[in-house]
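Margin note: ligand = adenosine monophosphate.
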Amino acid sequence: MSLNETYDPDNIFAKIVRGDMACVQLYETDDILAFMDVFPQSRGHCLVIHKKADATNLFDIDASALAGLAGAVQKVATAVKTGLKPDGVRIAQFNGAPAGQTVFHLHFHIIPIYEGEALGVHAAGGPAPAETLEPIAAAIRAAL
Ligand code: AMP
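Resulting structure:
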């Protein structure tokens, strides 16, 4: 998908926002949703999205909504840091398929880094079952 593609309201994250698809939720406000990445690259890999901006990518959202989203990324990343005690935290965000974007609803990745542990491959492998993600999510939620 190109950088100028129109927003598709039937993308996976839009379905999650509408409640048409399940997620392991971490944090929700009127505007923001954070949930566990179902193909985690590390223990605690999670995603933060804007629920209302209908933005395909970073170029498709107004600055005030983006500021709110950035604040939520910081809040959830802080809970990941406190709750899971990783050695580092990577924040990632991809724009356009050539850059690695696979879901065309703007999102930020929060990827905990543990020294000596290699990251999994981006958006690949089998989906993690909710039972595996839930206790990790509980540790993050407890730190929010
Ligand atoms: P990106 O490639 O930057 O667009 O990232 C999309 C992310 O969404 C990847 O890390 C996927 O593992 C993740 N993902 C795909 N489908 C789901 C889903 N149903 N629930 C949670 N995460 C998902």
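The pocket of adenosine monophosphate is lined by residues 12, 21, 23, 37-39, 47, 94, 100-103, 123 (CB under 6 Å).
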